[in-house]
Amino acid sequence: MANKWDTTDAEFSTSTVDERDRIDALFDALSSKRRRQLLSLLRDETRTSVADAARRIAAWESDRSIDDVPRERASALEIELVHVHLPKLRDAGIVEYDGRSRHAVMYDPPDLVERYLDRWASRDRPD
Q: Rounded to whole angstroms, how far apart are CA atoms 66 and 25?
């Protein structure tokens, strides 16, 4: 996936309305802790199933092992990822999501996302 949302410092100083809208979309995508956790997971693994991502995020949030996450909790989070968080990340150009295989992929995150992940991602996950 080509990085269509690169946000270098030069772009911030000379941004157009479209560029500002793209930056707003990136910040909006990063505003949710669950989306940030998913991005952190994808940074480590590039590709993950939505079911696995839901179990891992639920484990982080409940301070449990993946095996101890209740099935209902993981299923509810999987639905939320599919219907809320993955569309937002896809629309912001950060991830690709294949609804048939139910896998999410992050190949080349925008510079702003990469900077966030470099500096702050560890705060959103307990491991």
A: 31
Q: Which domain holds residue 51?
A: 17-124
Query: The pTM is what?
Result: 0.80
Number of domains within the chain:
1
| pLDDT tens track, the chain, 127 positions | 445 555 555 545 556 778 888 888 889 999 999 999 999 999 988 899 999 999 999 999 999 999 999 999 999 999 999 999 999 999 999 999 999 999 999 988 888 888 888 887 777 766 6
Q: Are 37 and 125 in contact (CB under 8 A)?
A: yes
Residue 8 lies in a domain: no
**CATH number of the domain within which 40 lies:** 1.10.10.10
